[in-house]
Structures are given as structure tokens and as C-alpha cells.
Amino acid sequence: MISLYNIKAIIKRFFQPSPTVIREFDLETLPWIDQPNADIDGFARQFASRYTDLPYDMAEKLHFWKENGYVVLDKVIAPEWADQLWRETEELIANSEQYKVNIRVDLPDYQHAPVQEARALPKSVLGGKFIKFMDFHNASIIGKKIMLHHSIVTFLEAVFGERVVAMQSLLFKFGSQQATHQDFAYVVSEIPSHLAAAWIALEDVQIDAGPLYYYPGSHKLKKFDFGNGIFFNGNSTHNPNDFARYLDEACQKAGIERKTLLIKKGDVLLWHASLAHGGDPIRNADMTRKSYVCHYSSVSAYKHHRHRAADEPKRYSLNGADVFLNPSLPDQEDIFRAGETM
Q1: What distance lies between CA 185 and its chain's CA centroid?
Q2: Residue 1, domain member (yes or no)
Q3: Cα dist. 63→68, 141, 213, 257 in Å?
Q4: Residue 315 lies in a domain
Q5: CATH number reported for the structural domain that contains residue 63 in this entry
Q6: In total, how many domains does the chain have?
Q7: Is 2 inside any structural domain?
Q8: Is residue 69 a contact partner of residue 61, using CB atoms and an 8 Å limit?
Q9: Going edge to edge, which strands form the sheet with 212-214?
Q10: What Gene3D superfamilies does its record include (predicted)?
Q11: CA angle 191-196-198, nearest 5°?
Q12: Whose CA is closest to 6, among 316, 314, 333, 309?
């Protein structure tokens, strides 16, 4: 999904001005699995003892990932975990005046600041469409546990070949209806190719709820040039609509068939930084698509919290992976504690 943070500031933080315009990922820093001669079977054999407790075959999933740019992990998130995360979201909506959690408002023609604290917004807005709860995992222990679930981080650790760091999360109640895009253009880590995402279903996905769609194999397409390279920022001469048009047309020319994601509660879609995807229109206005989206990088590519790039971050660690505590909202960290006993 498109990052809901100040994209220009993030890029400025991580990339110093340079006469070189980035038009493709650096081959030397690509994750091993994206290298031309990646030995997936050899990798899986080498680390076989670490994968015996997984509910999927690691080698099979890695082969599928390399070819298609995504994998689906069936029923890895317990239903009670998904329910608890959504109960906490509903609590925030019902008693929003108590919470500082940041909310992104993408309502058409919205005249106010796009990012505001929950306590500043009316409940009618918080419970409606075009609303995204930003980094709710910082407020929620169960949010952290889902984000750093063993089945998710073990697969991504294999993809990156190093320790996983979770970067951000977004919670949706309704489908995003977002145009086709690739995440790397908006969600930027210090090594741009060290990026992946998880889309976690908090309820069964229905066709009329504006489901996510994706193009298998689109991660191999030539990168789009925004006029100043592959990242969208304040100096770009092309915009997200141009990006979407390019991707849809490139996939059509390449014979890549668009797929619709209709998965069940507790299922997880993991996708590559360059997988083209988006959100279908909502056909039934009353139908929800409760979703939890998390973005991940590696320990060598995401070293500092985006709000305090100069400081050593405080970490929550689980299953051999990390997520940084939010230095800007320390009083909101882990205010939803029910997940401690789950």
C-alpha cells in the first residue's frame, strides 16, 4: 500500500542529493532470492532444521515467491487474535477522545490536515470510508504479535537473508479502492529492494467489498520513471495516476493476468516490493474489508525510526524480528494490553 507518511521527508532523510538518478534496484544489494542464480533448494536444505515447525513448505513458497512476487499463508493468524485487534480498533473509534493514535483521512475534497490524532476527529469520520489507522501496532500488544508472527517473519527472514524489521502498519475498515502501484515508490528503506509487505485478513474477503487485486510476476517489470527516478516525491514530474496507467498497460502487454484476492480470516498475503497491486471499487457500500497491512525491511536497511533518524531506536522483539517503539507518542505505546495473555 502507499505509505501514509511524508514521502518527501523520508527520502530526504535516507538519500543525500546526488547527480545519479536511481532508475532500477542496485543488483549488488538485491536480496539473495532476487539474484539471477539464486539457489533456493540449496538454501532450504541448509536451513531445513529452522523450518520444521512451519505450516508451509519453505522451499515451495520461496520458488513461488521468486516466480510470482507473492505468497499466501493459509490460516496462520488465529481468529481470536484477529478479533482482538479489531475490538481494539472499535474501542478507539468509540472512545476516540482518549487516544492520540494517528489517523489518515483520504476523503475526497477533505479540507483539513490529512493526518490527525484520533481525538481530533468526529466518530462519524473515524468509522467511515477512506480512513486508515496508522501504526496501530505501537498502541497494541496483539498488533505487535500479529505483525511479528512466527510464520510471517520466518519467511521474510529467508527472503531478505537477515533479521527482519517491521517498518509501519495500516488498519482499514473498508477497501482502499487504490489505483495500481508498487510499494517501493512510496515506502522507502535505506536499501529500496529490502522491502516486503503483509496483507492480513481480519475477516473473510467478499467480492463486493472492494478486494485487493494484484498482477503475478509484475515484480519483474521495468521500473517506472517518475521523471526523477523510481521514487515519487516533490520533484517528480509524473504522478501516481501516471504510475498506475503505466503498470496496468505494462502488465497487459506482458500478458500478466490480473488476480483478485479472496482469502479468509487469518490468511496472509505476503508480497514483493515491486508487485503491482491495488484495490477494486466497493460495489456494496455497506460491506467492510477489515485489513491489517504491515511493511517490513531488513536490519541492514532500516536502522532508525523515521521520526528520530539520529537516535538509537527502542525495540520490541519477537520471533527473531524487531519493531521500533514510536518515539513521538511514548504515552500511547501498548495502551491496549489484552494481547499480553494471548
Answers
A1: 13
A2: no
A3: 9, 33, 21, 19
A4: yes
A5: 2.60.120.620
A6: 1
A7: no
A8: no
A9: 259-260, 212-214, 277-279
A10: q2cbj1_9rhob like domain
A11: 155
A12: 309
CA torsion 88-286-2-25 (nearest 10°) is 110
Which set of grid coordinates corresponds to residue 9? 521527508
SS3 190: coil
Residue 54's identity, in one-letter code, is L
| Joined grid coordinates for residue 201 | 485478513
Query: Does residue 9 carry a pLDDT above 80?
Result: no
Q: Euclidean distance between the first and final Cα of the chain, in Å?
A: 28
Are residues 146 and 76 in contact, defined by beta-carbon separation less than 8 angstroms? Answer: no
Query: Which residues lie below 8 Å from residue 158, measured CB to CB, with a gap of 6+?
Result: 33, 43, 47, 58, 62
Q: Strand 164-172 relative to strand 321-324: parallel, antiparallel, unpaired?
A: parallel
Packed helices 150-160 and 58-68: angle between N→C axes, nearest 10 degrees: 60
Q: For residue 166, give the nearest of 51, 320, 275, 335 by alpha carbon.
A: 320
Tell me the torsion sign for CA atoms 263, 293, 285, 282. Answer: negative
Average pLDDT, the chain: 92
- Residue 212 sits at the vertex; the CA angle it makes with 317 and 232, to the nearest 5 degrees, is 75
Q: pLDDT tens digits, residue range 124-149?
A: 899 988 899 999 999 999 999 999 99
Look up residue 110 and give its three cell numbers.
477533505
Distance of CA 114 to the CA centre of its chain: 19
Q: Which helix (H) or strand (E) holds 213?
A: strand 212-214
**SS3 state at 126:** helix
For 19, the grid coordinates are 547527480
- Measured between alpha carbons, how far is 12 from 15 in angstroms, rounded to an integer? 5
Q: 324: left (phi > 0), else alpha (psi -120 to 50), else beta?
A: beta
Q: What is the pLDDT of residues 16-32, one digit of tens each?
A: 334 467 889 999 999 99
Residue 37 lies in a domain: yes
**Cell numbers of 321, please?**
524480528
Contact 253, 221 (CB under 8 A): no
Q: Shortest CA distance to 143 belongs to which of 173, 104, 116, 170?
A: 170
The domain of 321 spans: 7-341
* pTM for this predicted structure: 0.92
Helix (H) or strand (E) holding 158: helix 150-160
